[in-house]
């Protein structure tokens, strides 16, 4: 650790880690676009560019033993949770050294060791899983809080209402994190929801709920810490509406005809990485050398991940039914 790093205040250390995490996610996603265009990655792929502050902030606050349930836009969540780039990228390449042995791909990242339970391709599909994990941990006496991330499109699904109701009724230790990026695929939220204040919707189930600036990683981390503290203290579930925005299309197949380019450009002025960088520079917490060091470290991490993914073996044809059917006699 450098002398400058040792002298950092707790706030500066937190900002540095959040910035580093956001840059890791952004650069990884940007490289994934190149790899997808070169057909090294195939199938569906949903990018997280623009929403990095949510993953960085939430995972900064979550404990190592807290279960995490994600969505199909899961790369950023997985990386911030602690899954290696090698395991994530190899999975996207369909190689057996991937975190799901290459069977799940981009939308089904999974790592039980990190208590990261998907990657779920079904909208709102992770909510019942999260409620079940929270119930299981409570029955086993584990002092954990399950973190469940999902998009605003999930609010229109029955599972959303069933799970919030059950979690509130049984006072389960769940942190519901709604990444409201204003569009459920190509449907603007005001075209689908009569009440667009999603925090108000969640509060109707009798749980603590409030909106958060999802473009501010520090605000996200502080909100998550406050929510998790209450959950661990026995207050029951909590809901955070993380108001964010994706800068890229819904998926690599999306023609993106449902929003104006000018809208995207306006939101890019609130880029969470640029916002954090500017604040840290103004407060004397970040230099050009610091940024160069982060970029260099991340670039090497990505190059190593690409090498591992490309060298990873494909699953033998004779193993295709493994993990599908029981191996018991």
Low-confidence stretches: none
Q: What's the Cα radius of gyration?
A: 20 Å
- Major sheet size, sense and barrel closure: 5 strands, parallel
Distance between the termini: 55 Å
Mean pLDDT, to the nearest integer, reads: 95
- Name the helicity range: 40-55%
DSSP strand count: 7
Give the overall shape.
globular
SS strand fraction: 5-15%
Structural class: alpha/beta
Task: Report strand order across the widest sheet.
Answer: 1-2-3-7-6
Annotation field: number of helices: 13
Order of helices and strands: HHHEHHHEHEEEHHEHEHHH
What does this molecule look like?
With 329 residues, this protein is of the alpha/beta class. Helix content is 47%, strand content 9%. It has helices spanning 3-6, 10-37, 52-61, 75-81, 85-93, 126-139, 158-169, 189-192, 198-203, 217-232, 261-268, 272-282, 288-311, and strands spanning 68-69, 146-151, 174-180, 183-184, 187-188, 208-213, 238-243. The strands form 2 sheets. A 5-stranded parallel beta sheet has the order 1-2-3-7-6, sandwiched between helices. It has a two-stranded antiparallel sheet with strand order 4-5. It is globular, with a radius of gyration of 20 Å. The protein starts with a helix and ends in an 18-residue tail after the last helix. The model has no long low-confidence stretch (mean pLDDT 95).
